[in-house]
Amino acid sequence: MTILDSILLGIIEGFTEFLPISSTGHLIVASEFLKIEQTSINKAYEVIIQFAAILAVILNYPDKFTFKHTNLWIKIFIAFLPIGIIGFIFSSFIKQLFSIEIVATMFIVGGIIFLIVEKFYDEKKHTVSDVENISFKQSFYIGLAQIFALIPGTSRAGSTIIGAMIVGLNRKASAEFSFLLAFPVMCATTAYDLIKHHNELLHTTNLTNLIIGFIVAFFVAYLTIKLFLKFLERFTFVGFGIYRILFGILLLIIFNNNIN
After folding, report:
1. What is the pTM (predicted TM-score) of this model?
2. 67 CB-near residues (< 8 Å, 6+ apart)
3. Confidence at residue 36, expressed as pLDDT on a 0 to 100 scale
């Protein structure tokens, strides 16, 4: 992996982590096109730059990471439990799902679901406009929706946002809860990968690449969060649904052409 590769992957990760378009899916596709070999160290690198993006949440919401918001973090922990349990139990099976074809298919499926959810979106029924007001029951249901993010290409942000909208949160609150929920999920994922690949990371000659990718992902993610919330003040998720479908179709065409 070159320094340019690190910068490109950092930009892609930082920009896509909090948008409902699957950061993992884009990283898989980018790695394929950049001809980056999926070694254990490169896979660990992708997780580490994902964690850098998650740290941007703290910078955007410093007040939420205080003891006065303990009740909110209990709800976030409840939402984290389903994916934490299922992800741990089926981790080996999940890794077998990482392929361009599955990513492309889930891009399309997720895009269609977004269009359906927006089609039936009723502002009057989405009364929760502040993440502090979310109920424990709603948190759990959002956590169940997040399980689908274990399928590559589904999008963790996408599944949690859809789940939040279905149970009554408005668009902005859905996005913000998704941002905060990303923190425990990626902390757990990063810790697991650091333990699993600590030897490779300690002896890697690409430490400079890791640092550059980390910094790039952090700052791009920080800006993306701010711009995304501004976007939601004026627009819906329809554009993301259309993008997912078109991108998924494009991937399937490229995938089939490469096979032939």
Report:
1. 0.91
2. none
3. 81
